Amino acid sequence: MGLKLFRCCLMVMVALCIFSTSAFGGEVEVLHWWTSGGEAKSVAVLKELLEKEGHIWKDFAVAGGGGDAAMTVLKSRAVAGNPPTAAQVKGPQIQLWGDEGLLANLDDVARAEKWDELLPKVVADIMKYEGSYVAVPVNVHRINWMWANPEVFRKAGAQLPTTWEQFEVAAKKIKKAGFIPVAWGGQPWQEATVFEIIVAAVGGPDFYRRALVDADAKALSSPTMVKVLEIMKMIKQYTDKGAPGRDWNLATAMVIQGKAAMQFMGDWAKGEFTAAGKSPGADYIAMPAPGTSNQFLFNVDSFIMFKQKDPGAKEAQKAMARLILQPEFQKVFNVNKGSIPVRLGMPRAPFDDPALRAMSEFIASATGGGLVPSMAHEMAVFPAIRGAILDVVTNFYNSDMSAKKAAAELAREVEAAM
Ligand code: BGC
Known about the structure:
- The chain is an alpha/beta fold.
- The protein has 2 domains: 25-142 and 299-367, D-Maltodextrin-Binding Protein, domain 2 (3-Layer(aba) Sandwich); 145-297 and 376-417, Periplasmic binding protein-like II (D-Maltodextrin-Binding Protein, domain 2).
- It has helices at residues 2-24, 37-52, 68-79, 93-99, 107-113, 115-118, 121-127, 150-156, 164-176, 188-213, 217-220, 223-236, 248-256, 268-275, 311-324, 327-337, 353-368, 383-397, 403-417, and strands at 27-32, 56-61, 86-88, 128-129, 132-133, 135-137, 139-142, 145-148, 180-182, 260-264, 285-288, 296-299, 302-305, 340-341, 371-373.
- The strands form 4 sheets. It has a 5-stranded mixed beta sheet with strand order 2-1-3-13-6. The protein has a 4-stranded mixed beta sheet with strand order 14-7-12-15, sandwiched between helices.
- The longest helix is centred in the middle third of the chain and has 26 residues, at 188-213.
- It is globular and about 85 Å long.
- The chain is built from 19 helices and 15 strands.
C-alpha cells in the first residue's frame, strides 16, 4: 500500500516536472552589452523577474559601450545558425533582422498586454516588422545631456555653459585651474555621440534630420556641417591625453571623482552616478548639452526574439517580452539605468529630477518638432551609413584633417554606402 502510494506520488511529480519545463519553465539566452556598474544593476532586475516565474536566464553579455562589439558577435552567431533566444537590437536594424525571417512574432503578447495603447506610436512603429511586433522596447534614453561636477566649476570660477561660446570660456578657466574640462571617451561611437549633439545644437532639428536621418549629401557637406566639425576640434583642446580608447563609464567616473568638469553623453551616464550614490542637483548637474535645450535626441533600447522550436524557450521568451513592459520592471530598471519608461502613464514619483525633465521634454519635443532619432545609437540610419559617418568623424577628430575636407568626405562616403 505504502509502495503504491509512493509510486503514484513519484509519477505525479514526474508528470508535473515535464509539464512545468515544457509549458512554463524555459531558458532564454540573452545577448546584451550592459556591463558597466549601473547597466549590470539594471539588467539584473529582468533576470530576477524571469527567474521568479520559473525560467532560466543565460547571460550572454558582450562588453563594449554602444553595442558595436555585441552586434558583430550576434551576426556571427546568426550566420552559424545559432542565434541566442533574445538580443538587444535597436532601430532600423530590427527591419534587417526581420528581412532575414529569423524573428519570432510577439503579436499575441502585444495584444494581451495592449502594447498599442501603452507605447508612443513613434516607438511602436520601430518595433514592428510588416505590421507585427517582433521587438519589445525597454526604455527611452536621451542623448543630448551634459553631466557636470559643480565643485570643479566652483573651484575654477566657471559658469555652467548653455552655448558653445560659453563652453569655451568655461573650459579655459577650468583648464587653467588644473582640471580636465571634458572627460572624453576616445571610441568612434562616443565621438559620434558628441558629434550628433553638436549637429543638433548648430543646425537645429530640421538640419539634423536632413543630415543624419535622410543622409542628404548637401546637408552633410554644408557650411553648417563645417561649423559642427570645427566645434568638435575646439573641444579636443579641452580633453586629456588619456582619452584615446577610454570607455564611457571611466569618463563618467572622472566627473564623479572631480578630476574632470563635464561629460557629454546619454543618460546611461546617470546610471553610474546613481550606482555611486550621487544625487542630481547636489553632487552633479544634469542639463541639456549646450544649444540643445528644446531638442530630444532619442535612443530606445529593445530586444528582438529569435524563432524557437522548444516550447519552454517559447514560453520564456513570451514571459520576457511581457515582463519588460510591466510597470514593476519599467520602474526599477529605468530608475537604475538613467532612462525613462517607454510605457506611457507611469507614476512620476520614483523618478529623480533629470528623469522628470526628460519625461516632460520628450513629450514637449514631440509636439514642438525637436524629437529626433540618434544616429550614433542606431536609431536613424542603416548600419552601413552609420558606419560611414562614424569612420569619417573619427578620422577627422583624430587627425589634422580640415573641417571642410571632412564635411566633403562625409557626403562622399555616405553616398557610397547608400
Ligand atoms: C545603449 C545604452 C547603453 C549605452 C552604453 C547605448 O547605445 O542604448 O543602453 O547603456 O549604449 O553602452
